[in-house]
Write a structure and sequence with these properties.
Blueprint (H helix, E strand, L loop, with lengths): L5 H11 L4 H11 L3 H11 L4 H17 L13 H10 L2 E6 L5 E6 L10 H27 L6 E6 L11 H14 L4 E7 L3 H10 L5 H6 E3 L5 H4 L34 H17 L19 H18 L4 H6 L7
Parallel strand pairs: 2-3, 3-4, 4-5
Antiparallel strand pairs: 1-2
Organism: Hibiscus trionum (Flower of an hour)
InterPro entries: CRAL-TRIO_dom, CRAL-TRIO_dom_sf, CRAL/TRIO_N_dom, CRAL/TRIO_N_dom_sf
Protein name: CRAL-TRIO domain-containing protein
Length: about 325
């Protein structure tokens, strides 16, 4: 379990044994029976400090209770056309598994526009994928392999990354902060592929600001990353944008379905959520409207990274007004 000692895990476990019933109940949804591994994740996120890890975990559980996160998998985004619009603009999908059994998530960073719905829908969608991963996919993988599988792999495609795409930096910071505070250490490795110049310029200034444990997880691969990724997964699990050198990740690629609502992963996820909603409230019609979650303030590190990125982008863009669009993200009520 890395830098985390068994003694620290036992100490944190003793502290968690005293939390009230509501926190204990949501903690079961967090750990899915892998209590020690979950405690280790929060300890890693706080460099092994038991007191800080305890505060982080308790804060996470309070966030879950206050925002009804345990119920979010029973709250579908409807109508289907709206969810399809979210999927077409928030490009994420699961392409398969590594040879070690870790789920492989593909994320189209460069081509995600995040402009077809309010912030709350994108946050809801992101948390639902997190919860489905943690409550359905990872327990199933653990059962199949007969050992705890509690993390995933993410392949980040930078194809199409432009200055205008980074105008959504505030939303990306919100989502990143939610993950940092409430889903720590869930990603084993981030593989970054198809990197244009703008990524290289931003990475140069952001990399020194990241914590060492985060930097160690990020691998920037040459080209589409095919050869390196085939060392850890079969070709069937490669995201479509890694299949051919130089192919990029065209939005019209025949393999793009990894992101699409029509892909089996998203079909299973969406059907699961609809079924959960019918099981939870069988007599009530499904209502349109996003599942509002308290949007966190970014930590000091996140704020510094966002500020540094904005400064670097201003240099690249030679002051054409991009910084105004970065700070002007719209958060609608619906």
């Amino acid at each position: 379990m890395g830098i985390v000692s068994q003694e620290a895990i036992l100490e944190l476990q003793a502290l968690m044994d005293s939390v009230d019933e509501s926190l204990s109940r949501t903690f079961q949804n967090v750990n899915q029976g892998f209590r020690a591994e979950t405690l280790a994740r929060f300890l890693k996120a706080r460099d092994g400090n038991v007191a800080k890890a305890h505060k982080m975990l308790v804060d996470c559980l309070h966030w879950r209770v206050q925002n009804n996160i345990d119920e979010i998998l029973a709250k579908p985004i409807v109508p289907t056309e709206l969810y399809r619009a979210v999927r077409d603009s928030q490009l994420i999908g699961m392409s398969g598994y590594s040879r070690e059994g870790l789920p492989v998530f593909a994320i189209g960073v460069g081509l995600s526009t995040l402009d077809k719905a309010s912030v709350h829908y994108y946050v809801q969608s992101h948390i639902q994928i997190n919860e489905y991963r943690d409550r359905v996919i990872l327990p199933s993988a653990s059962k199949k392999h007969g050992r705890p599988i509690t993390t995933c792999i993410k392949v980040l495609d930078m194809t199409g990354l432009k200055l205008s795409a980074l105008s959504q930096i505030k939303l990306m910071t919100i989502i990143s902060t939610i993950d940092d505070l409430n889903y720590p250490e869930k990603t084993n490795t981030y593989y970054v592929v198809n990197t244009p110049y703008i990524f290289s310029a931003c990475w140069k200034v952001v990399k020194p600001l990241l914590q060492e444990r985060t930097r160690k997880k990020i691998q920037v691969l040459p080209g589409c990353g095919r050869d390196e990724l085939l060392k850890i997964m079969d070709i069937e699990s490669l995201p479509h944008f890694c299949r051919k050198e130089g192919s990029g990740s065209s939005r019209h690629s025949e393999n793009r379905s990894c992101y699409s609502l029509d892909h089996p992963f998203h079909q299973q996820l969406y059907n699961y959520i609809k079924q959960q909603s019918l099981t939870t409230e069988p007599s009530r019609p499904i209502k349109q409207g996003s599942f509002h979650v308290d949007l966190p303030e970014p930590a000091a590190e996140g704020t510094e990274i966002a500020r540094t990125l904005e400064s670097e982008l201003q240099k690249i863009d030679k002051g054409n007004g991009l910084s105004k669009s970065i700070s002007g993200i719209k958060i609608d009520d619906d």
